[in-house]
Amino acid sequence: MALAVAALLAFAGCGGGGDEETTAERPPITKKKFVREGQALCTRAYRRQARWMEKFYKRHGYDWQELSKKAREEVNAAVVMKVEQEKIDELDALPVPPGDEKEIEKILESMERGIRITEREPERLAEPTEENPEPFTEARELTADYGIWICGQP
């Protein structure tokens, strides 16, 4: 009897676990679904950013219609870059449509580059010029081309 129980336990532990069946390969995400999910998460991030910026302005006594360059640099550092990083992290967590890996990687890299440039040269986002354009220009173009245009808006 003990031998039968041991054999039954050994058989149950071999290759028949329910986990494999429940985590069976899911169909790949489509570009349409990726775009829909990306736009949704970036829209939520954009709304969150607007709320946080409003709180920042009130806390510091800023009039959002008449912000100085210094005030724009402060809000960019305290709020905008934080939300931008969250968008990158959330987009990076989405499954990518097969064949689009390099394109999505390029988008994420351009967004990260925008953050790095803004951290080094905060005036470029606060007051872009022709000589020193806004650091997220490439991210805007790449996200627009892919269909997740709101994700390129810092």
What does this structure look like?
The chain is an all-alpha fold and 154 residues long. Helices cover 68% and strands 0% of the residues. The N terminus is likely disordered.
Quick gist of this model?
By secondary structure, the chain is mainly alpha-helical.
Properties at a glance:
single chain, disordered N terminus, 0% strand, mainly alpha, 154 residues
Q: Strand share of the residues?
A: under 5%
Global morphology: globular
Number of strands: 0
Helix and strand succession?
Answer: HHHHHHH
Average pLDDT for all residues:
86
Number of domains: 1
Put simply, the count of helices is 7
Q: What's the arrangement of secondary structure elements?
A:
Blueprint: H1 2-12, H2 18-22, H3 31-60, H4 69-93, H5 101-120, H6 123-126, H7 137-146
